[in-house]
Amino acid sequence: MKRRFFNSSIFLLSMVLVSACAPKTVPTPTVDVVATRSVELASQMMTQTVAAYSPTPLPSPTFTATPAFTETPTLEPTPATTAMPKVTGYAPCYKGPGQTYALISNIADTKNVEMIGVGSVPGWYVIKNPYFYVQCWIAAENLILDPSFDISAYPTVTP
After folding, report:
1. Domains observed in the chain
2. What integer pLDDT is reported at residue 110 of this predicted model?
3. pLDDT surpassing 90 at residue 125
4. Cα separations in angstroms, 36 against 41, 42, 44, 68
5. Cα–Cα distance, 54 to 44 (Å, whole number)
6. Which residues pair with 103 in a beta bridge?
7. Rounded to whole angstroms, how far apart are CA atoms 18 and 108?
8. Band of the pLDDT at 38, cuts 50, 70, 90?
């Protein structure tokens, strides 16, 4: 009998402990978004001040003379001689002149690039990488220059 009472009381005690330790579910509050926003707007409108009325009269209009029409000279268009260099093939662009330097990226075929300078090593040009916007060196055989492109306007760059 004692054993049965002991087992029952242990079972009852464990059930009480389990139910006491179980996580309680808290209902999530629902928010009326439309009503909340309308109350916020009404509160803002009630706290705004209206500009004070100024009894000062507006200044009277003044008349200014309109300048007579003058003929503007037409400007002659100057021919575009700054065509951007274009890459041919899938060209590698290095940190210096040659494969001994780190490769920055390969530039896609027919991509226009911005010239920075002429390389101090013959056969190399320094351009702005169109992907990473950093200076890189490209071989002359991978670059198409327009015949009107003025190479002498660019500085000589050393690695």
Report:
1. 86-146 (2.30.30.40)
2. 83
3. yes
4. 9, 10, 13, 61
5. 24
6. 94
7. 68
8. confident
Average pLDDT of span 41-62: 67
Under 8 Å between Cβ of 134 and 146: no
- C-alpha distances in Å from residue 55, one per residue of 10, 52, 59, 106: 89, 10, 12, 72
**Contact partners, residue 88, CB within 8 Å, separation at least 6:** 109, 110, 141, 142, 143, 144
Could you please report the per-residue DSSP string of 63-92? --PPPPP-PPPPPPPPP---PPPEE-SSEE
Structure tokens at 114: 């911005």
Strands 114-119, 156-157: pairing kind: parallel
Average pLDDT over residues 37-56: 69
For residues 153 and 55, give the distance between their C-alpha atoms in angstroms, rounded to a whole number: 66
DSSP 100: T
- The residues pairing with 91 across neighbouring beta strands, listed in sequence order, are 107
- How far, in Å, CA of 133 to CA of 142, rounded? 18
From the number of C-beta atoms within 10 Å of its C-beta (0-12, 13-18, 19+), residue 14 rates as exposed
The Cα–Cα gap between 72 and 49 comes to 51
- Distance, in Å, from the CA atom of 63 to the CA atom of 1, rounded to the nearest integer, reads 117
